[in-house]
Design goal:
By secondary structure, this protein is an alpha/beta fold. Helices cover 40% and strands 15% of the residues.
Length: 257
């Protein structure tokens, strides 16, 4: 599958997800602005880049994603995740009004907008984040909802080759997917006519179950062993209801077959 869009602006290309998107090779003609020329916290920077470049889609990955940093510096988290995304949306609406083009916008959010206590969250479940990172990502979603052609992906991912910890909890659950899986999912949602919020993920598993197959030396522990060494709350069960996503995924698989 290839993107149906000719020019795609990628924000946050230097982050882990952004790097995976670039290296995947399945997004032709990506616009990857340098941080010096495109800063989402600077409206003038965005406006200038939008004026000088044409694109028909945006994949918005730029964010302050480290939960510990968001907890320690909420002002920076607000400036980047909420105000930065709002700046981007504002400039995009202005560009659309001037050009009369309807630009596709895919926004990467998080499963952290849910409370993370009982799991099986649908997109209509109450959004009560359990730490500052989740709250700032929820704030960003509010801005994205002002667009007409958008998709908000609530998800969580990991990189199998970069599992640095030596133990993982067998009583913390999620629907995390590998970064490569998420990259393909982003392309599907980019090409889809779907508008709104969608959960993207895999089957419900404990962290230990999920990571063990990629790191056989991984030891088993409990959530309390992990939470005692960090400055933010973590989810007990952030697993997602994926009924809607699986229907879209199956449809694209049939197209590719």
């Amino acid at each position: 599958m290839k993107s149906k869009y000719k020019n795609i602006l990628l924000t946050g290309a230097s982050g882990q997800l952004g790097q995976a998107i670039v290296s995947s090779g399945i997004f032709p003609r990506l616009l990857i602005p340098a941080e010096a020329e495109f800063d989402i916290t600077n409206p003038d920077s965005i406006e200038k880049y939008f004026r000088q470049n044409e694109f028909d889609a945006v994949v918005h990955c730029a964010a302050l994603a480290r939960m510990s940093v968001c907890q320690e510096d909420p002002v920076k988290a607000i400036k980047t995740n909420i105000i930065g995304t709002s700046n981007l949306v504002n400039a995009l609406i202005t560009k659309e009004n001037k050009s009369k083009n309807n630009i596709r916008f895919v926004h990467i959010s998080t499963d952290g907008v849910y409370s993370g206590t009982r799991g099986n969250y649908s997109k209509n479940s109450p959004t009560i984040p359990y730490n500052f990172y989740g709250w700032t990502k929820l704030g960003a979603e509010c801005a994205v909802n002002l667009l007409s052609n958008f998709c908000i992906i609530r998800t969580s991912f990991f990189i199998p080759e970069k599992i640095k910890f030596d133990c993982s909890a067998d009583n913390l659950y999620s629907s995390k997917v590998t970064v490569d899986y998420l990259v393909r999912a982003i392309l599907m949602m980019l090409n889809s006519d779907f508008t709104g919020v969608i959960n993207v993920g895999g089957k419900r598993q404990s962290d230990y179950q999920r990571y063990k197959k990629f790191k056989p030396s991984l030891k088993r522990c409990k959530g309390i062993d992990i939470s005692k060494d960090i400055n933010f709350r973590i989810a007990k069960d952030s697993s997602l209801n994926l009924r809607q996503w699986k229907k879209i995924e199956e449809r694209f698989k049939k197209i590719d077959a």
